Amino acid sequence: MDDGNVTQEHLKKQKIRGETALHEAVRHDSERIVELLLEEEMKLISNRGCSVDMCNCKDCAARMLAKKDNLVSTPNVSRETAHFLAAACGKWKILGVISD
């Protein structure tokens, strides 16, 4: 974050047990933080690529990969995603936010 710009990689940064900020927000039942993290990631993903429909350029390919390899699908060392963690801990409101 040398230039002050947040990237998807920053959002997916993991602690020693593989926990991301999203894992921590789910664990602490911080619905608003979950929303903010997911909104920021969607902004970052939507800014990738070009404006041509059905394009196969390098930037558009990176955008498609970023959609698939997102914060919600990032597992910790126990292979738990934030989605799984929300369900396993009974965080139903947060599960709804993540699932949208």
From TrEMBL:
Key words of the record: ANK repeat
Descriptive protein name: Ankyrin repeat protein
InterPro entries on file: Ankyrin_rpt, Ankyrin_rpt-contain_sf
SUPFAM superfamilies per UniProt: Ankyrin repeat
First and last residues of every ANK repeat: 17-39
Keyword set includes Heme: no
UniProt superkingdom: Eukaryota
Keyword Signal: no
